[in-house]
């Protein structure tokens, strides 16, 4: 979840999204820039998993995204976990048999937690609002969970995910449902499809923070 604000369009008031009383989420949804984001997530890293996966939030987005990767693409290829945070997605993928997972995140504190899981082949700092240093067609799967949300990464990240994904590869990303349209994410996915760069496999609404009744779009794209 730890990335930086970017090219989001006008969107609903972030504090209208149910935070279930979490002061951390209230800060996360109103980030003002990369330094603010890095500071927040470095502070939050030690308790992030316990708070979000606990009873108040029921954060199931990472688990459901990993399951979607398994169903849509399998886990034999090379996978990039973009905005890996503490490694919740990587652990779920590793449990499903993935062995070649790379992760990037803005926060050194989150990356340290991800490294401790042992799920990742490589980890590196990165800002998803900017192009990544990886070459084109570097991965069979790009998965991104929790970064396409209020105050974080805008819809332009989808174009970078396409660049990083090999032809025939798969992108799986969650987008907080209440900014899917208003934040320009639907329009960007549709634009990429109209340009024949991707095939839209699905954009279904799924549980995200289940206990707080917050949903997200599970975007599944096949790269041309």
From TrEMBL:
It comes from Actinomycetospora corticicola. Residues 79-169 form the Methyltransferase domain. The keyword Methyltransferase applies. GO terms for molecular function: methyltransferase activity. It comes from the Bacteria. This is Putative TPR repeat methyltransferase. GO terms for biological process: methylation. It holds the Pfam family Methyltransf_25. Keywords: Methyltransferase, Transferase. SUPFAM superfamilies: S-adenosyl-L-methionine-dependent methyltransferases.
